[in-house]
Design brief:
The chain is an alpha+beta fold and 445 residues long. Helix content is 34%, strand content 15%. It folds into 2 domains: 5-159, Creatinase/prolidase N-terminal domain (Creatine Amidinohydrolase, Chain A, domain 1, 3-Layer(aba) Sandwich), CATH 3.40.350; 164-435, Creatine Amidinohydrolase, CATH 3.90.230.10. It holds the Pfam family Peptidase_M24.
Length: 445
């Protein structure tokens, strides 16, 4: 899954050169002489000395790939080499951060910092300096501007379109994640509960829980109907029927976000039909991906396919249009079709207008939709339709005028199966798209 080292170094060097040129343009457009990016630092739990989990600031990771570095700084000043001040104190409690190597050391001019705080003042000669990151305004030097909104919007926009190096990192993350999903499915088939499935996933992907890009969702039976289910039962249920795994991997700071749903031998046959139906129309939606496609329209198309599937399987008995207009399909699938993916799982820039950074809010009927843009080459998106039996969302229809449009006996049979979600990660190309979850890396030299 890895490219030859010389090919990878060529891609990484091109990535950093692209960022240097793009940052020079962005800073000039916003009349800044330089930007200082802070990686961030972990907070401690209240009344405790233990730190919470930590992930570095996305714009810092965009350059460095260092997704867990605390107290680091990156100085970008057009006309000078970028400077990476990495925090490496003399410490016997913790292992010191190693010096950056390879292309990163070549391009970013690393310099160790022995203490937290600002980098050496001699390197902050810019007349107009922007500082971005999780910092207090009171800590800014005189004249520095903290997190200027227009600049941040422009840098968010820069992260929307991935280059070949980023595409490769995302592909590698996907391949590791798929290995984890295979391990999770095998563990479920052998009778494991949620916690042991999680441990099997982590072992197969060679990750600690602190390294995954988001908390893995591993839900058996009705737990699969909680969209962001956050617990792991220690014991397996007496009658396992379904398993939903929404879990990823992080490679060089870039995230995979994959979901699969499986039925056990004890599942209702209708549930198996619905899994296949969701998989089929998920692949159809992926086949439509190309530059110029309005993602909101594709989200609405998902609801049309969902209505048709529910009608074909006799879960509902109404027209496609009525199911959509009444909100019935949204009761069965309340989340959006997908989102931008990159350094962050729900990556930046998905709800802003290209160029201006003006907000692009989701439709009123779909407040959870995280991507509202027209697709363009280089964007990476998730496609993740689903069907769920969520009693609180279906209750108004069970008690309302549309109650006869739903086969409640079928719904009740499905309730202890929870739900279905199928998710792939796809990059938009000039010719159409490439499914990173099922595709191939860029061609080797």
């Amino acid at each position: 899954m890895n490219l030859p080292i010389d090919t990878l170094e060529t891609l990484q060097r091109a990535h950093l050169e692209r960022l240097k040129a793009a940052y020079a343009d962005v800073l000039a457009a916003h009349k800044f002489d330089a930007v200082l990016i802070y990686s961030g630092h972990a907070g401690v739990h209240f009344a405790d000395d233990q730190e919470a989990s930590f992930k570095s600031y996305g714009h810092f990771v965009h350059w460095t790939g260092a997704s867990h570095h605390q107290h680091d700084w990156l100085l970008i000043q057009p006309g000078s080499s970028p400077r990476w001040y990495y925090y490496a104190p003399e410490d016997f409690w913790h292992l010191a951060t190693p010096a950056p190597q390879g292309v990163l050391a070549e391009v970013l001019t690393p310099q160790p910092l022995r203490d937290t705080g600002w980098p050496p003042p001699r390197d902050l000669s810019a007349r107009r300096l922007a500082v971005i990151g999780n910092l207090e305004a009171s800590s800014m030097p005189l004249g520095a501007e903290l997190n200027p909104p227009a600049l941040l919007a422009a840098l968010d926009e820069l992260r929307m379109r991935k280059d070949d190096y980023e595409r490769h990192c995302l592909f590698v993350a996907n391949q590791w994640s798929l290995a984890g999903h295979d391990a999770a499915r095998e563990a479920f088939a052998l009778g494991a509960g949620e916690l042991d499935i999680q441990l099997a996933y982590l072992a197969a992907t060679r990750q600690r829980e602190s390294q995954v890009p988001y908390q893995n969702i591993i839900g058996i039976n009705h737990h699969a109907g909680t969209l962001h289910y956050q617990h792991y039962d220690v014991d397996a249920p007496d009658t396992p029927k379904s398993l939903l795994v929404d879990a990823g991997h992080s490679h060089a700071g870039y995230a995979a976000d994959i979901t699969r749903t499986w039925a056990s031998t004890r599942a209702d046959p209708l549930f198996e039909r619905l899994i296949q139906g969701v998989t089929d129309y998920q692949q159809h939606l992926i086949s439509r991906l190309a530059p110029g496609l309005d993602f909101i329209e594709l989200h609405q198309e998902m609801h049309r396919h969902l209505a048709e599937l529910l009608i074909d399987t006799d879960v509902i008995s109404t027209s496609t249009e009525a199911a959509m207009e009444s909100g019935l399909t949204r009761a069965f699938c309340p989340h959006g079709l997908g989102h931008s993916l990159g350094i962050q799982v729900h990556d930046v820039g998905g709800r802003q207008r290209d160029g201006s950074g003006a907000p692009l809010p989701p439709p009123a009927a779909d407040p959870a939709l995280r991507l509202t843009r027209t697709l363009d080459a280089g964007m990476v998106v998730t496609i993740e339709p689903g069907i769920y039996v969520i009693p609180m969302l279906l209750a108004p229809f069970r008690q309302g005028p549309q109650r006869d449009a739903v086969n409640w006996a079928a719904v009740d049979r499905l309730q202890d199966h929870g739900g279905i979600r199928v998710e792939d990660n796809v990059i938009i190309t000039s010719e159409g798209h490439d499914n990173l979850t099922q595709g191939r890396p860029i061609a080797e030299d």
